[in-house]
Amino acid sequence: MLISLRGLEKSYPQGVARSYVLRRINVDIRPGEFVSIMGPSGAGKSTLLHILGMHDLDWSGEHYFLDTPVHRLKPKERADVHKRHIGFVFQSYHLLDNLTVYENLEVPLTYRDVDRRQRQSLVADVLDRFQIVGKKDLYPSQLSGGQQQLVGVARALIANPQVILADEPTGNLHSAQGKDIMELFRQLNEGGTTIVQVTHSDVNASYGSRVIHLRDGWIVDD
To answer: Would you say 10 and 35 are in contact if contact means Cβ atoms under 8 Å apart?
Structure first.
């Protein structure tokens, strides 16, 4: 199994009680699946994705990734697992403002000790694939929201991760760009990449093979 969650819960103190964001989540995701997480706003979709991506460390329960007990790892060990295996597409881009597009794309490759010549080749390939060669020397503040989203997707894919986690990956793109991204995800999935996306779009969900519905922090359908 690639990912297993057992009894996972996320909550905040609220007076003398607790307010739950996720309740008793039990999920298995196999290698090569294409899963969509859907549900109304506030259902806990993005929170669950960030826990899967090992960004959110404040939860209870068990989380296994490739049989590694993530819940027992130290923060640095979790970060290392994330950097080696996971590509994350953020809803709000999370590009590094002080780096150019080219340098932002290089960052995931430096985590994996890719040598300079190979980094140059991979970045050039991705710039061409996403048709952003002309933007390579610009900073995020000089890009439109859609262009920043394209760079964010490109950065998530560049190191050929085992898993892509995507939070509303087409939310800031016009329909043609969005369709291109979803077709690219389909191709990557057919090549063996596991994809888990949060989406409000039935069209985007139709690219996958499985939908997990969340409501008020509970899985109500899988």
So the answer is: no
Q: How many domains does the chain have?
A: 1
* Listed residue (70, 46, 44, 45) closest to 57, CA to CA: 70
User: DSSP readout, 169-220?
Assistant: TTTTS-HHHHHHHHHHHHHHHHTT-EEEEE-S-HHHHTTSSEEEEEETTEEE
What 3-state DSSP class applies to 58?
Answer: coil
Q: Which residues contact residue 125 at a Cβ distance below 8 angstroms, ignoring those fewer than 6 apart?
A: none
pTM given for the model: 0.92
Supply the CATH number for residue 190's domain. Answer: 3.40.50.300
Domain with 152, as residue range(s), is 3-221
Assign 63 to helix, strand or coil: strand
pLDDT per residue as tens digits for the range 18-55: 999 999 999 999 999 999 999 999 999 999 999 999 99
